[in-house]
């Protein structure tokens, strides 16, 4: 039962207003009894609507006495001569009581509706906050604090059965809500309330399975709000757990895929030059009578093979560094032709069977870039174009300004790339299915290029038509 709290100042105001009405009507205005009852009723209604039933009842009783004493003959006494006036007096009293009851009901309905609305708003905010984290531990730790922050409660604690741990809104709450008590309430399996400490608890359930218990202390929260809160928490915990498991299994799958791809690529790519080196060394050792030109040929195979292995190791190391974000860029305003000259010089040998046609838009502005790295990207594009297109077909290089950015492209007349492969070729170690057994490569050139361009806040892209060729391009922000 709720204790009735009465405010003396309010009571004084009720009496004073009643006294004022009585004084005005009995001394100054001299109105009819009907006007007096109407005014008293109005007073009772207003009081009931704003301050509640208790004040209205007191006012009604006092008004009945005042009506009898001042306005029903014989005046100045509490006796009533005419039986008709008894009826008038009781009619007034009954009307005042019923009206104050009705006004009180309306007032409580408004209060309850307002409270529900506020609780709904708080629940909505709370649900938004629950969705903001993707980590189970972070979520569990934050829930009790968010409850205290969002709802009008002073303490919150949550017991999670899978870990048998209790999470508190702050450490001092441990004294108020003991962890053993929470476990015991959870064991009982029913919602609990302790009116003395204003402690309310609700079971966290997923479907019918209990997964924990939520306890709050402080102001009275409605049971619906507490249960809704418990439902939201159960769903959020399960949602984050499921997301974490999915991420873990996705990460495990991805690392497994990379491991297999790396192993395939590395075993194949290392084995080919190593076989050449090993064969050449064996021949050199077992045939001391080889002539000079044969010896030189075998030594060239050894040199080429070692260079290739060296390049492979270099690319793998660079890839790992780019992945770890450890590559520092030396960005400064440069002309794109600086990077292009470096790349063309380095690719001279691979490009010897291709005519290279360079078209740079006149007066190109400077771009922000690390020349060495951008030259490296161009080098990958150019060696791929040479590697994957038939000898004696031309390769075109273009650079122009488009949409406020510098776009540079390398086009070839090679076999083109199937549309399903166009995004895959930028993934680590991916090698085109038609090329992987014919043309040597590691599947690292394009992912390295992509990482470099993205570190420059640019974008890498490809357009290709099967049987006609491919265009690889990248954009760079202007200086
Ligand atoms: P690699 O050339 O060592 O295989 P890349 O990452 O440079 O590695 O390229 C990945 C794949 O993209 C290649 O295996 C090839 O299938 C495809 N590719 C790249 N450039 C071209 C091109 N110019 N024409 C056709 N296919 C290409």
Taking the sheet with the most strands, its summary is: 5 strands, antiparallel
**Oligomeric organization of the protein chains:** single chain
Helical fraction equals: 55-70%
Could you say which overall geometry the principal axes of the C-alpha atoms support?
Answer: elongated
Total helices: the number is 13
- Terminal Cα span: 75 Å
Number of DSSP E strands = 12
Would you write up a description of this structure?
- The chain is α+β, with helices and mostly antiparallel strands and 479 residues long.
- Helices cover 58% and strands 15% of the residues.
- The strands form 3 sheets. Strands 2-1-5-4-3 form a 5-stranded antiparallel β-sheet, with helices on both faces. Strands 7-9-10-12-11 form a 5-stranded mixed β-sheet. The protein has a two-stranded antiparallel ribbon with strand order 6-8.
- α8 runs antiparallel to α9.
- Adenosine-5'-diphosphate is lined by residues 380, 384-385, 388, 412, 414-415, 417, 425, 430-432, 435, 441-446, 470.
List the topology elements.
Layout: H1 8-29, H2 33-51, H3 53-71, H4 83-130, H5 136-150, E1 153-160, E2 165-168, H6 173-176, H7 179-188, E3 192-194, E4 199-206, E5 209-218, H8 223-286, H9 292-323, E6 332-334, H10 336-346, E7 356-360, E8 367-369, H11 371-388, E9 395-402, E10 405-411, H12 421-424, H13 445-455, E11 460-465, E12 469-477
Helix pairs in contact: 1-2, 1-3, 2-3, 2-4, 3-4, 4-5, 4-8, 5-8, 8-9, 9-13, 10-11, 11-13
The protein binds adenosine-5'-diphosphate.
Key words describing this protein structure:
single chain; 479 residues; alpha+beta; five-stranded antiparallel sheet; five-stranded mixed sheet; 58% helix; 15% strand; binds adenosine-5'-diphosphate
């Amino acid at each position: 039962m709720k204790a009735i709290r009465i405010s003396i100042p309010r009571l004084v105001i009720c009496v004073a207003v009643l006294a004022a009405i009585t004084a005005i009507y009995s001394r100054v205005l001299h109105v009819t009894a009907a006007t007096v009852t109407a005014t008293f009723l109005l007073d009772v209604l207003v009081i009931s609507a704003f301050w509640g039933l208790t004040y209205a009842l007191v006012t009604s009783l006092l008004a009945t006495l005042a009506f009898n004493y001042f306005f029903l003959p014989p005046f100045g006494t509490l006796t009533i001569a005419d039986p008709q006036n008894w009826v008038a007096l009781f009619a007034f009293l009954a009307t005042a009581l019923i009206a104050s009851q009705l006004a009180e009901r309306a007032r409580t309905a408004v209060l309850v509706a307002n409270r529900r609305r506020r609780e709904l708003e708080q629940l909505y905010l709370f649900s938004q906050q629950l969705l903001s984290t993707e980590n189970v531990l972070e979520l569990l730790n934050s829930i009790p604090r968010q409850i205290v922050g969002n709802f009008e409660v002073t303490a919150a604690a949550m017991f999670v059965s899978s870990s048998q741990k209790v999470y508190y809104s702050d450490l001092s709450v441990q004294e108020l809500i003991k962890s053993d008590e929470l476990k015991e309430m959870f064991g009982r399996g029913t919602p609990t309330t302790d009116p003395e400490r204003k402690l309310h608890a609700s079971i966290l359930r997923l479907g019918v399975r209990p997964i924990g218990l939520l306890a709050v202390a402080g102001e009275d929260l409605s049971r619906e709000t507490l249960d809704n809160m418990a439902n939201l928490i159960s769903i959020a915990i399960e949602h984050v757990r499921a997301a974490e498991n999915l991420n873990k299994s996705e990460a495990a799958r991805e690392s497994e895929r990379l491991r297999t791809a790396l192993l395939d690529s590395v075993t194949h790519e290392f084995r080919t030059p190593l076989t050449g080196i090993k064969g050449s060394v064996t021949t050199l050792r077992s045939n001391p009578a080889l002539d000079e030109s044969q010896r030189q040929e075998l030594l060239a195979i050894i040199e080429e093979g070692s260079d290739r292995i060296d390049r492979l190791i270099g690319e793998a190391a660079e890839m790992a560094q780019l992945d770890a974000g450890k590559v520092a860029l030396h960005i400064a305003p440069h002309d794109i032709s600086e990077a292009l000259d470096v790349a063309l010089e380095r690719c001279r040998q691979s490009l010897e069977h291709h005519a290279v046609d360079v078209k740079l838009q006149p007066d190109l502005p400077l771009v922000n870039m690390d020349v060495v790295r951008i030259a490296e990207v161009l080098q990958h594009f150019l060696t791929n174009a040479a590697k994957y297109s038939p000898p004696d077909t031309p390769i075109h290089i273009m650079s122009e300004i488009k949409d406020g950015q510098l776009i540079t492209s390398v086009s070839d007349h090679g076999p083109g790339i199937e549309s399903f492969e166009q995004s895959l070729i930028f993934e680590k170690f991916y090698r085109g299915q038609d090329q992987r057994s014919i043309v040597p490569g590691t599947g690292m050139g394009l992912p390295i290029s992509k990482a470099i361009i993205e570190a420059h806040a640019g974008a890498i892209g490809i357009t290709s038509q099967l049987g006609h060729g491919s265009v690889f391009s990248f954009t760079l922000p202007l200086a």
